[in-house]
Amino acid sequence: xxxxxxxxxxxxxxxxxxxxxxxxxxxxxxxxxxxxxxxxxxxxxxxxxxxxxxxxxxxxxxxxxxxxxxxxxxxxxxxxxxxxxxxxxxxxxxxxxxxxxxxxxxxxxxxxxxxxxxxxxxxxxxxxxxxxxxxxxxxxxxxxxxxxxxxxxxxxxxxxxxxxxxxxxxxxxxxxxxxxxxxxxxxxxxxxxxxxxx
Length: 198
What we know:
The protein is mainly α. The protein has helices at 20-32, 34-44, 51-63, 68-75, 79-91, 113-133, 139-162; strands at residues 95-99, 107-111.
Protein backbone atom coordinates (compact mmCIF):
# COMPACT_ATOMS: atom_id res chain seq x y z
CA UNK A 1 0.00 0.00 0.00
CA UNK A 2 1.41 3.37 -0.97
CA UNK A 3 1.82 6.11 1.60
CA UNK A 4 -0.91 8.11 -0.17
CA UNK A 5 -3.39 5.25 0.21
CA UNK A 6 -2.65 4.58 3.88
CA UNK A 7 -5.37 5.82 6.25
CA UNK A 8 -4.47 8.37 8.90
CA UNK A 9 -4.49 6.44 12.19
CA UNK A 10 -4.06 9.44 14.47
CA UNK A 11 -6.91 10.79 16.62
CA UNK A 12 -8.88 13.74 15.30
CA UNK A 13 -8.28 15.66 18.52
CA UNK A 14 -4.75 16.83 19.16
CA UNK A 15 -3.16 15.33 22.25
CA UNK A 16 -3.89 18.27 24.52
CA UNK A 17 -4.43 16.99 28.08
CA UNK A 18 -6.51 20.09 28.84
CA UNK A 19 -8.92 19.66 25.91
CA UNK A 20 -12.34 19.62 27.59
CA UNK A 21 -13.81 17.15 25.10
CA UNK A 22 -11.05 14.65 25.82
CA UNK A 23 -11.32 15.29 29.56
CA UNK A 24 -15.06 14.70 29.62
CA UNK A 25 -14.75 11.59 27.46
CA UNK A 26 -12.16 10.23 29.91
CA UNK A 27 -14.36 10.97 32.95
CA UNK A 28 -17.36 9.33 31.31
CA UNK A 29 -15.28 6.28 30.45
CA UNK A 30 -13.96 6.10 34.02
CA UNK A 31 -17.47 6.25 35.48
CA UNK A 32 -19.32 4.27 32.83
CA UNK A 33 -17.00 1.44 31.82
CA UNK A 34 -18.12 -2.15 32.22
CA UNK A 35 -15.01 -2.87 34.30
CA UNK A 36 -15.94 -0.16 36.82
CA UNK A 37 -19.57 -1.31 36.97
CA UNK A 38 -18.57 -4.93 37.53
CA UNK A 39 -16.06 -3.83 40.18
CA UNK A 40 -18.79 -1.96 42.06
CA UNK A 41 -21.13 -4.94 41.73
CA UNK A 42 -18.48 -7.17 43.31
CA UNK A 43 -17.76 -4.73 46.16
CA UNK A 44 -21.42 -4.31 47.10
CA UNK A 45 -22.12 -8.03 46.58
CA UNK A 46 -24.88 -7.37 44.12
CA UNK A 47 -27.06 -10.49 44.24
CA UNK A 48 -27.26 -11.06 40.48
CA UNK A 49 -24.60 -11.22 37.79
CA UNK A 50 -26.60 -8.84 35.62
CA UNK A 51 -25.26 -5.38 34.75
CA UNK A 52 -28.65 -4.14 33.53
CA UNK A 53 -30.28 -5.00 36.86
CA UNK A 54 -27.47 -3.18 38.61
CA UNK A 55 -27.93 -0.10 36.42
CA UNK A 56 -31.64 0.08 37.22
CA UNK A 57 -30.91 -0.06 40.96
CA UNK A 58 -28.19 2.56 40.44
CA UNK A 59 -30.59 4.90 38.64
CA UNK A 60 -33.31 4.45 41.27
CA UNK A 61 -30.73 5.13 44.00
CA UNK A 62 -29.72 8.41 42.36
CA UNK A 63 -33.15 9.58 41.19
CA UNK A 64 -35.84 7.88 43.24
CA UNK A 65 -38.87 6.13 41.77
CA UNK A 66 -39.26 6.38 37.99
CA UNK A 67 -41.73 5.29 35.37
CA UNK A 68 -40.60 2.32 33.25
CA UNK A 69 -40.71 4.62 30.21
CA UNK A 70 -38.27 7.00 31.86
CA UNK A 71 -35.94 4.20 32.93
CA UNK A 72 -36.00 3.07 29.31
CA UNK A 73 -34.98 6.56 28.13
CA UNK A 74 -32.28 6.98 30.77
CA UNK A 75 -30.68 3.59 30.14
CA UNK A 76 -31.08 3.61 26.37
CA UNK A 77 -33.00 0.36 26.11
CA UNK A 78 -36.49 -0.67 25.07
CA UNK A 79 -39.53 -0.60 27.36
CA UNK A 80 -40.02 -4.33 26.92
CA UNK A 81 -36.49 -4.94 28.16
CA UNK A 82 -37.04 -2.66 31.17
CA UNK A 83 -40.15 -4.68 32.03
CA UNK A 84 -38.07 -7.87 32.03
CA UNK A 85 -35.28 -6.29 34.09
CA UNK A 86 -37.72 -4.92 36.67
CA UNK A 87 -39.37 -8.32 36.85
CA UNK A 88 -36.02 -9.90 37.71
CA UNK A 89 -35.41 -7.24 40.37
CA UNK A 90 -38.83 -7.93 41.85
CA UNK A 91 -37.99 -11.65 42.05
CA UNK A 92 -34.95 -10.97 44.23
CA UNK A 93 -36.69 -8.32 46.33
CA UNK A 94 -34.80 -5.18 45.23
CA UNK A 95 -37.58 -3.33 43.39
CA UNK A 96 -41.33 -3.21 43.08
CA UNK A 97 -43.94 -1.60 40.89
CA UNK A 98 -46.44 0.73 42.54
CA UNK A 99 -49.30 2.84 41.17
CA UNK A 100 -48.35 6.43 40.39
CA UNK A 101 -50.07 8.98 42.61
CA UNK A 102 -49.91 11.47 39.72
CA UNK A 103 -51.42 9.29 37.01
CA UNK A 104 -53.64 6.35 37.86
CA UNK A 105 -52.92 4.79 34.46
CA UNK A 106 -49.17 4.48 35.07
CA UNK A 107 -46.86 2.77 37.52
CA UNK A 108 -43.58 3.67 39.14
CA UNK A 109 -40.58 1.44 39.72
CA UNK A 110 -39.25 1.94 43.24
CA UNK A 111 -36.64 0.38 45.48
CA UNK A 112 -37.79 -1.90 48.29
CA UNK A 113 -36.15 -1.50 51.74
CA UNK A 114 -33.67 -4.19 50.65
CA UNK A 115 -33.13 -2.30 47.39
CA UNK A 116 -32.48 0.92 49.30
CA UNK A 117 -29.85 -0.85 51.40
CA UNK A 118 -28.18 -1.98 48.19
CA UNK A 119 -28.43 1.56 46.79
CA UNK A 120 -26.75 2.94 49.91
CA UNK A 121 -23.88 0.49 49.46
CA UNK A 122 -23.54 1.52 45.81
CA UNK A 123 -23.43 5.21 46.79
CA UNK A 124 -20.78 4.46 49.43
CA UNK A 125 -18.55 2.68 46.91
CA UNK A 126 -19.06 5.54 44.42
CA UNK A 127 -17.95 7.95 47.14
CA UNK A 128 -14.84 5.86 47.78
CA UNK A 129 -14.02 5.90 44.06
CA UNK A 130 -14.22 9.69 43.97
CA UNK A 131 -12.08 9.97 47.10
CA UNK A 132 -9.44 7.71 45.57
CA UNK A 133 -9.43 9.69 42.32
CA UNK A 134 -8.97 12.93 44.28
CA UNK A 135 -6.32 11.59 46.66
CA UNK A 136 -3.63 14.19 47.19
CA UNK A 137 -5.82 17.11 46.11
CA UNK A 138 -6.15 20.04 48.47
CA UNK A 139 -9.55 20.75 49.98
CA UNK A 140 -9.60 24.02 48.06
CA UNK A 141 -8.97 22.26 44.73
CA UNK A 142 -11.67 19.66 45.43
CA UNK A 143 -14.16 22.41 46.26
CA UNK A 144 -13.23 24.34 43.10
CA UNK A 145 -13.66 21.22 40.97
CA UNK A 146 -17.01 20.44 42.62
CA UNK A 147 -18.28 23.96 42.06
CA UNK A 148 -17.11 24.25 38.44
CA UNK A 149 -18.28 20.76 37.44
CA UNK A 150 -21.67 21.47 38.99
CA UNK A 151 -21.88 24.75 37.10
CA UNK A 152 -20.87 23.07 33.84
CA UNK A 153 -23.37 20.24 34.34
CA UNK A 154 -26.23 22.65 35.01
CA UNK A 155 -25.39 24.63 31.88
CA UNK A 156 -25.13 21.42 29.83
CA UNK A 157 -28.55 20.33 31.11
CA UNK A 158 -29.97 23.75 30.20
CA UNK A 159 -28.68 23.27 26.65
CA UNK A 160 -30.16 19.79 26.51
CA UNK A 161 -33.50 21.07 27.77
CA UNK A 162 -33.43 23.91 25.27
CA UNK A 163 -33.21 21.37 22.47
CA UNK A 164 -36.13 19.43 23.89
CA UNK A 165 -34.25 16.36 25.11
CA UNK A 166 -35.34 16.77 28.73
CA UNK A 167 -38.64 17.73 30.30
CA UNK A 168 -38.52 20.94 32.26
CA UNK A 169 -39.77 19.42 35.49
CA UNK A 170 -36.65 17.28 35.77
CA UNK A 171 -34.43 20.34 35.79
CA UNK A 172 -35.94 21.87 38.93
CA UNK A 173 -33.31 20.53 41.38
CA UNK A 174 -30.49 20.86 38.86
CA UNK A 175 -31.25 24.51 38.23
CA UNK A 176 -32.01 25.28 41.86
CA UNK A 177 -35.80 25.37 41.58
CA UNK A 178 -36.78 22.79 44.19
CA UNK A 179 -37.32 19.08 44.44
CA UNK A 180 -37.57 16.93 41.30
CA UNK A 181 -40.79 15.17 40.50
CA UNK A 182 -39.61 11.60 40.51
CA UNK A 183 -41.99 10.47 37.80
CA UNK A 184 -40.18 12.31 35.05
CA UNK A 185 -37.20 11.40 32.96
CA UNK A 186 -33.93 12.28 34.57
CA UNK A 187 -31.84 12.52 31.44
CA UNK A 188 -29.16 10.46 29.77
CA UNK A 189 -26.34 11.20 32.16
CA UNK A 190 -26.14 8.88 35.13
CA UNK A 191 -26.06 10.26 38.63
CA UNK A 192 -26.83 13.96 38.28
CA UNK A 193 -27.20 14.59 41.99
CA UNK A 194 -26.38 18.28 41.56
CA UNK A 195 -26.67 21.08 44.06
CA UNK A 196 -27.98 24.52 43.17
CA UNK A 197 -24.70 26.23 44.00
CA UNK A 198 -22.90 28.35 41.47
